[in-house]
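Weekly modeling sync, notes
Attendees: AB, CL, MP (scribe)

Item 1: holo prediction request
CL wants a bound-state model with alpha-D-glucopyranuronic acid before deciding which constructs to order. AB pointed out that an apo prediction alone won't tell us much about the pocket. Agreed to run with the ligand included and paste results into these notes for async review.

Input as submitted:
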Amino acid sequence: MQVHKYNNQMLGAIVVVAFLSMTTSTMAQATKKFVPNYDESKIPPYQLPAALQTENGDRVQNAEQWNDRRAETLRLFEEHVFGIMPGQRNIKVKVVRSDRDYRPGVTRHELDVSILPLDASIDRSPLVVQVLADVPQSDAPVPAILGLNFQGNHTIDEDPKTRIPTSWVRDRRNGTTDGSKAIEAGRGVASTRWPSKMITDRGYAMLTVYYGDIDPDFDDGFENGVHGLMPEFIASLPENHRPGSIAGWAYGLSCVLDAIEQTEALNVDATRVGVLGHSRLGKTSLWAGATDPRFAMVISNDSGCGGTALCRRAIGETVARINTSFPHWFNDAYLQYNENESALPIDQHQLIALSAPRAIAVGSATQDEWADPKGEFLAWQAAAPVYQLLGMPSEDLKVVEEASMPNGQSVINAGPMQYHLREGKHDLADYDWQCYLDLADRTLQTESR
Ligand code: GCU
């Protein structure tokens, strides 16, 4: 008995010590302040996965083989990064406003795109996504740029008629929201990011949608937004492949493209729509371009980690950091790459390559170190072999290969591939739009593609 008692005491002590050390290490982890690295000399040696080599080690030598490698790459991003969304969509469109006198030569439309539950027997109301479209008046359908916005369609300019979203918004605590409700005071606050006149003057329609209409930007356990429309589909997936918010927002962009296709009154040519996004929404535009080849052009502005910045550099925001601050953007499998980037079977140059051979624009800003502008440039450069394989002329390839990271504001144009660096901070500004519209002029302006 005595021995037994002694053993029990020992055991108790071991448990207490183990518990204490566990709590201390968990606490240390929780309180450990993340210090981003900005020192190039501290980047661990890394090798990028070859975009043109299959998981089996086979070289990809022609467009047909790329089709298989593309499917494999897409699956790797689904399974390890973003999660899987269904291939089907079911929408209904209602035009709720067509203001032909909005601006001389430009009609402003507002649409309701209802995204319906995939399985009609599910008792869920459709999700209504509000689309705002400024369309140059023209005899023939016009090309367009479609982008999600962060704060609501009413924030893109002062137009008093634009509807205010009724879905969740982030509490800005600056008077432009009332808690998580959008309010009148937010009207026009994001106008510098949406230079509608510049865009329509150049012959493009500008379409925008508030991202929170598609999915709220917090972890809601797949309850709300698009995820809430497909409980059976989500439950059927392995837990770590369930889709995060980025996959949800990208799915919503495809639904909007369906709506453009179905709405003749818009007069937008659905075969010539570029998808654009800034920051987390730039990660989203890349994923939308990857999952939906109908997007004719893909534009990723200051998208950083999880977007166009190479994970393996771990400069600025890292995989571990983004998975700590925003775990709901990605799937759970992505967590295993925290401080373990070299184990990733892909890197972000391959996300860019999934847009090939379509036009791709990658934009960075000089003061946006958190997003690692150089990592964005290098990923863009490393995507070039896929573009070459799919027909990019050798003189364009040469431009990409010989380019070095710009020092100041400038743009590198190489056929369908464009990279630019803007002076300034993390933002979507006029210069960014000018670069994107220049690329659109070269790639979206020919009719009947
Ligand atoms: C944070 C986040 C970035 C993201 C950005 C944004 O800064 O760390 O990854 O791009 O928010 O979307 O505004």
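Recorded for review: Residues 279-280, 304-305, 317, 322, 325, 370 surround alpha-D-glucopyranuronic acid (CB under 6 Å).
Action items: CL to compare against the apo run; MP to circulate these notes.
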